[in-house]
Amino acid sequence: MTQKLVIYDTTLRDGTQAENFNLSVDDKVRISLKLDEFGIDFIEGGWPAANPSAAEFFKEMRNYELKHTMLAAFGSTRNFHNPADQDANLLSLVEAKTPAITIFGKTWDIHVRDALRISLDDNLLIIVESLQFLRPHAKHLFYDAEHFFDGFKHNQEYALTTLDKAVEGGAECLVLCDTNGGTQPTEIPQIVETVKAHLHSRGHKVDIGIHAHNDTETAVANSLLAISLGANHVQGTINGYGERCGNANLTSIIPALSLKLGYEFTAAERLDKLSEVSRFVNELANLPHNKYQPFVGSAAFAHKGGIHVSAVQRNPLTYEHIEPEKVGNIRRILISDQSGKSNVLHKAKKFGLNLESKDPVVTSILKELKDLENRGFQYEGAEASFELLMRRALGTHRRYFDLKGFRVITQKTDMNEPPQDEATIMLEVGGEVVHTAALGDGPVNALDKALRKALTRFYPKLTDMYLNDYKVRVLASEHGTGAKVRVLIESSDHDSSWGTVGVSHDIIEASWQALVDSITYKLMKDEQKKKAEQ
User: Fold this and answer.
1) Spatial distance between the Cα atoms of 147 and 109, rounded to a whole number of angstroms
2) Beta strands of 279-376 (E only): which ranges?
3) Which CATH superfamily is domain 402-533 in?
4) Strand order in the sheet with 484-492
5) pLDDT tens digits, one per residue of 106-157
6) Which of 91, 105, 215, 323 has the greatest CB tally within 10 Å of its CB?
7) Do the Cβ atoms of 306 and 338 come closer than 8 Å?
8) Half-sphere exposure of 511 (CA within 13 A, CB side)
9) Could you say which of 3.20.20.70, 3.40.50.980, 3.40.630.30, 3.20.20.150 is the CATH number of the domain covering 6-284?
10) Is 438 left (phi over 0), alpha (psi -120 to 50) or beta?
């Protein structure tokens, strides 16, 4: 479709109202540059009158030249007791010197009476006067009709009148806000069509936007519906971050508009960067990626059941609604107790192993896999451990070292002081026995240090290896402290990252299994790389 769409991102303002979602000024600058590169049309940088860091952000951004994106400062209509030209909130928006300004005003009569405690007519006055004051100072002027849908359902005539006043004040786009997030998709068409008819009857030539919250899991659906009904401005946040249950998720809205509904806009031309943008925001906010998130999550194109895998390998359309590469994601074939031969053969090909479907080793691998998963192992996040399992079954697995024994001692001598952890280990490497000890922050860290200390003399490249993440999951918690635990370790070097797993009633033993697999995988990878270079 050729309808011009405006993608308006409010991650830096509305998104930061989410619990545990915090960004520094430097983080906001980096995200702005990334969104500009992606092709977002407007970035709402914050409310300078309410948050000093927002004013600092706008000042800092003057040192950067954005190629496509325009910044928007956010604020409210003036305080009823202040003239517009003396209102600190409005003056801070002018001082931000952004090409776009967005202000919100009250649409719901309950908010006018109970929150502002002014008359309905006085609210209309501050809407029009605030916008009239800002109009000469902004290239683009947007009006967020706060609580519009609730206000419309409670007092339709007044809600529509507030829109008239916003147009009179000079707003070029009226953004209909579902601030409480309770509006259902079935309600959207009648309300949006009524707004359109009303504006047309008044002769108002103005754009309509949508700003939805996700309190009833309808923000994306409501946004897409509003666009299909003629709105051409959509607001949301990357990954759906926002107050309470979040805002409309732009990482779902953008690909849906482009790939499902056929709309054209700048970010749609760079859709293969979408997953990268999603991960980038999560990393700067120091939050985990939501693997189950549509389009950009690591599970969005992951296949587990053997029948599904077999079908996808013949034709991906059988179980995928789009090609994952279009949004910068990848197809993943998972290994689990539901796996069939197709999964194992797919992994073998990926690992560079020669396996045929009729090879009895495939059946052997599947049997061992199911047995291990019954004992608590899980390989969906530990592909390195699964590759080592396959190589052991094929007889191509090399032992880089043998354990002769280890001991981990945790000693606590004072109630108010942390314990001291020490690990000693004895290994045999190439016929030579080495015995080392190390202190650590906890018993597992001490064991990790002792193991690396023993091996680095023989395998110097282990100094390039880092442990990125360490997770412990209690299995069958009804057994209390006697329950099994599963340890997942994510490691990396300069080239890649990999996951390994261990399971035991003993957390140190489970950690040892995962550590050994992690180091073995690193050594194997380095050996393969060296052979390829020769």
Assistant:
1) 10
2) 302-303, 332-333
3) Alpha-isopropylmalate synthase LeuA, regulatory domain (3.30.160.270)
4) 466-475, 484-492, 497-504
5) 999 999 999 999 999 999 999 999 999 999 999 999 999 999 999 999 999 9
6) 105
7) yes
8) 19
9) 3.20.20.70
10) beta
Place of tokens 């690990």: 423
- Global pTM reads 0.71
Name the pairing type of β-strands 140-146 and 70-76: unpaired
Q: What are phi and psi of 374, to 5 degrees?
A: -65, -25
Work out whether strand 233-236 and strand 207-212 pair parallel, antiparallel, or are unpaired: parallel
Amino acid identity of residue 11, one-letter, is T
Please say whether the beta carbons of 341 and 305 come within 8 A.
no
By the 10 Å C-beta count (0-12 exposed, 13-18 middle, 19+ buried), 296 is classed as buried
Q: Where are the domains of the chain?
A: 6-284, 302-374, 402-533
CA dihedral 107, 186, 102, 255 (to 10 degrees): 170
Two tokens at 406? 């280890």
3-class SS of residue 21: coil
Q: 347-357, pLDDT tens digit by residue? A: 777 777 777 76
Q: How confident is the model at residue 429 (pLDDT cuts 50, 70, 90)?
A: very high
